[in-house]
Specification:
InterPro entries: HD/PDEase_dom (IPR003607), HDOD (IPR013976), RNase_Y/CdgJ (IPR052340). The protein is mostly helical. It has 2 domains: 22-100, no CATH class; 105-289, Hypothetical protein af1432. The chain is 68% helix and 0% strand. The protein contains 15 helices and no strands. Helix 6 crosses helix 15 (267-288), helix 8 (147-155) packs across helix 11 and helix 13 (219-233) packs across helix 14. It starts with a helix and ends with a helix.
Length: 291
C-alpha cells in the first residue's frame, strides 16, 4: 500500500511539471532504429552525426577509463562497431540524460554527474570481481540510478534544498524526501524511466538501489549499484552527504555474497584504488561539459 501511494505521488510530481523533459529527437530516432531486428550500424552512426553534441559526448565516454579501448577512437563509425548494438543504446541513454538536464538545477550538475559516472565506474569494477555477466550494464545502471534526484533538483529546487539542509544535520534521506515531496527520488526516477521506455533492468535499479532485496528481475545489479554508491560517496559528498559504512554489515554486500559466492575483495585496497578513479571521473565530466 505504501509503495502504491509513493508511486502515485511521484506520478503527480512529474505530471504537474509544465515542461516534462523528453529524450532528444535524434536520440529517439536512434533508439527506435536499434529496436528493429536487423540494425544497420552505418545508419546508426549517420543519425548520431546529426547531433554534434551527442557525438562529442559519446566519443568522450567511449574513450574514458570506463571502456578503455586499446587505442583512442576518433571515428564515430569505428566507435559504433567497437561498442555493438547493446552498448550503443546505453551510451545514447547516458548522453541524452546529460542533454535533458543541462539547465538550471538546485544541485551542481557537474557534481551530480561526477557522482553518477563515479558510481557507474565503481559498479563496473565490483561487477568484474563478482563475476557478473555484463560489467558495462553495471556501469550504465550506476550512471542513471539517481535520475530522480536531478529531476527533483531541476523542477522542485527549493524542496531539494530543504532536504539537503536536513540531511546534512543527520536526517534520513529517503524519509526526508517523503516528508517533503510525498515520494523519494527512487519512485520519481522510476516514473521518468518508464515514460522514456528504459529497459526493465535499469528501471528496477532506479527503483531499488537503496534496497536491493526488493529487486526481483536482477537483485545483483541493484546490489552492485548500492555498494558502488556507498563507496563513491565516501570520497565525494553527494545529495545524501558524506557516507561512512561497515561493508560486512551492508545488506547489499550480504546479497552479493549469497548470489556470487566467489566474490572476494580487499576492502582497504579497494578504497585506496578509488582515489585514482575520483580524478579520472572528474576529468571525464569536465571534458563532457566543455563540449
Amino acid at each position: 500500500m505504501k509503495e502504491t501511494t509513493l508511486a502515485a505521488r511521484a506520478e503527480h510530481l512529474i505530471g504537474a511539471s509544465d515542461t516534462l523533459p523528453t529524450i532528444p529527437t535524434v536520440a529517439t530516432r536512434i533508439l527506435a532504429l536499434l529496436d528493429q531486428g536487423e540494425v544497420n550500424l552505418d545508419e546508426v552512426a549517420d543519425l548520431m552525426l546529426a547531433d554534434q553534441i551527442l557525438t562529442a559526448r559519446a566519443l568522450k565516454i567511449i574513450n574514458s577509463p570506463v571502456f578503455r579501448p586499446a587505442a583512442p577512437i576518433t571515428s564515430l563509425k569505428a566507435a559504433v562497431v567497437y561498442l555493438g548494438v547493446a552498448h550503443i543504446r546505453e551510451i545514447i541513454l547516458t548522453t541524452s540524460l546529460i542533454d535533458i538536464f543541462d539547465g538550471g538545477s538546485a544541485i551542481g550538475l557537474s557534481s551530480f554527474w561526477e557522482h553518477s559516472f563515479g558510481v557507474g565506474m565503481v559498479a563496473k569494477v565490483i561487477a568484474g570481481k563478482a563475476g557478473y555477466r555484463d560489467v558495462d550494464k553495471a556501469y550504465i545502471a550506476g550512471v542513471i540510478h539517481d535520475i530522480g534526484i536531478v529531476f527533483l533538483s531541476s523542477y522542485h529546487g527549493d524542496g531539494v534544498k530543504r532536504v539537503q539542509s536536513r540531511v546534512e544535520k543527520g536526517a534520513d534521506l529517503l524519509a526526508t524526501e517523503v516528508e517533503e515531496f510525498g515520494a523519494t527520488h527512487c519512485e520519481v526516477g522510476l516514473c521518468l524511466a518508464q515514460r522514456w521506455n528504459f529497459p526493465e533492468a535499469y528501471c528496477e535499479v532506479i527503483a531499488c538501489h537503496h534496497d536491493p532485496y526488493q529487486a526481483t528481475l536482477d537483485p545483483v545489479l541493484s546490489a552492485l549499484v548500492n555498494l558502488a554508491n556507498l563507496f563513491w560517496s565516501m570520497h565525494l559528498p553527494d545529495y545524501g552527504g558524506w557516507v561512512s559504512f561497515n561493508l560486512a554489515t551492508e545488506p547489499a554486500w550480504k546479497l552479493l555474497k549469497e548470489r556470487c559466492p566467489d566474490l572476494k575483495m580487499d576492502e582497504e585496497r579497494f578504497r585506496y584504488e578509488l582515489e585514482e578513479a575520483v580524478q579520472e571521473v572528474q576529468q571525464l565530466v569536465a571534458s563532457i561539459f566543455s563540449s
